[in-house]
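Long-time lurker. I teach an intro course on protein structure, and each term I like to show students one example going from raw sequence to a predicted 3D structure in token notation. This year I'd like something fresh instead of my usual example. Would anyone be willing to generate the tokens for the chain below so I can use it in lecture? Attribution to the forum is fine with me.
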Amino acid sequence: MIYAVAIINEMDFLLSWNFRHLVRKKTKDIVRMISTLNNLRQIEIITPAELL
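-- Reply from a regular --
Happy to contribute to a lecture. Here you go:
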């Protein structure tokens, strides 16, 4: 659900420390796939450390 809010509000990044659920390769791939299939904006899911 948090992904949908970020995508609809045209955010570039979703910042999270939640390595167990949000910041996983599998989750990133699924979000990217769903966004692509629905012609929605792509969003980067990253940790604060990756932002620097």
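Some talking points for your students: Strands lie at 13-15, 44-46. The chain has one domain: 2-51.
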